[in-house]
Write a structure and sequence with these properties.
This protein is an alpha+beta fold. It is 52% helix and 15% strand. A six-stranded antiparallel sheet has the order 3-8-4-5-6-7.
Length: 272
C-alpha cells in the first residue's frame, strides 16, 4: 500500500453534470425574464429615484430648545408677578378693613360722647327750668300774699304803667306795632312807660338794658320782664303784680295777661 493512500484529498469534489445543467437553466431563465421586462418597459419611462427623509439639524434643535426655555421663563416671571400683585392686593384689603374698623370705632366713640354731652346739657336745662319755676311759684305766692295785705299795690307811676298795660289786653299783635289798637312786645312797654313820663328805647334788647337788674323773687308792679339775655333779649313784658304780667305775646294770642310760670322770664329790670 502506498504511503499516501490514507492522506485525505483537499480537492473539492466535482459537481455532477446534472446539477450544473440545472443551475445553468435557472440562471438562463432569470436572465431571460429580465431581458423581456426590459424590452416591455416604455422607452420614455423615468428612472426610479429614491426619496430620503430630512432629519432636523442640531442648529434647529438648539433654537427650539432656546425658544421653549424662554417661554418657560416668561411664564414663570408672569406667575411670580401675578402672585406678587395678589399678595399686595390682599395686604391692601386687610389694611383698608383695619382702617375702616378703626374709623368706625372712633366715630362711635365721638357719637357716644356727643350723646352723653347732650344728655348732660338737657339735664342741666331741665334742672334750671325747674329751679326757675320753683322760684317763680314762690314769688307768685309771695306776691299774692302781699297783694292781700296791700303791700304790692301799684302806686304813682307804677299804677299808671300797669293800668295802661291792662287796658290793652285783647288788642292784636303786629310786628312793629306801636298802637293804638295793635302792638308788638316792645311797642306796648314803650307806650306804657310813656304814661309815666319815661321815654324808653324802641327795641326789647335796649329796654332790658335800662335800669337795674332785680331778682324774680323780688318783683314790683311796673318792672320790665325780659326773655333771653339782658343785653340781647328777644321779648319783654310788664309785671302787673299778683304773680302776673301783661305782654303782646304773638299773632295768635295778641295782648294777654299770664302767670309768671306760664312762660318763665329770664330776668327783670326796675326802671322806676
Amino acid at each position: 500500500m502506498s504511503q499516501t493512500a490514507h492522506i485525505p484529498s483537499h480537492r473539492k469534489p466535482r459537481r455532477s453534470a446534472s446539477k450544473l445543467a440545472f443551475r445553468a437553466g435557472v440562471a438562463g431563465g432569470v436572465f431571460s425574464t429580465i431581458a423581456v421586462a426590459g424590452a416591455a418597459a416604455p422607452a420614455n419611462a423615468e428612472p426610479v429615484t429614491e426619496k430620503t427623509l430630512e432629519m432636523p439639524t442640531l442648529g434647529s434643535l438648539d433654537a427650539d430648545l432656546a425658544s421653549a426655555v424662554s417661554a418657560s421663563a416668561e411664564a414663570s416671571q408672569q406667575e411670580a408677578l401675578d402672585q406678587s400683585l395678589a399678595a399686595q392686593e390682599n395686604t391692601a384689603l386687610k389694611k383698608a378693613a383695619a382702617d375702616a374698623k378703626k374709623a368706625k370705632a372712633e366715630a362711635d366713640r365721638k357719637a357716644e360722647a356727643e350723646r352723653a354731652e347732650k344728655a348732660r346739657a338737657e339735664a342741666q336745662e331741665r334742672a334750671s327750668r325747674t329751679a326757675t319755676r320753683t322760684s317763680l311759684s314762690a314769688a307768685s305766692t309771695s306776691a299774692s300774699a302781699g297783694d292781700s295785705a296791700g303791700s304790692q299795690v301799684a302806686t304813682g307811676s307804677a299804677a299808671a304803667i300797669v293800668a295802661f298795660a291792662k287796658a290793652q289786653i285783647g288788642d292784636a299783635y303786629v310786628s312793629g306795632g306801636t298802637g293804638p289798637n295793635s302792638w308788638d312786645c316792645s311797642g306796648l312797654v314803650q307806650a306804657a312807660y310813656r304814661q309815666a313820663g319815661i321815654d324808653l328805647p324802641r327795641i326789647s334788647s335796649d329796654q332790658s338794658s335800662m335800669g337795674t337788674s332785680v331778682s324774680l323773687s323780688d318783683l314790683q308792679p311796673g318792672d320790665v320782664l325780659y326773655w333771653g339775655s339782658r343785653s340781647g333779649s328777644y321779648h319783654v313784658a310788664i309785671y302787673v303784680g299778683g304773680g302776673k304780667y301783661v305782654g303782646a305775646q304773638n299773632p295768635s294770642t295778641g295782648v294777654v295777661e299770664r302767670d309768671l310760670d306760664w312762660d318763665p322770664p329770664s330776668g327783670a329790670v326796675r326802671i322806676l
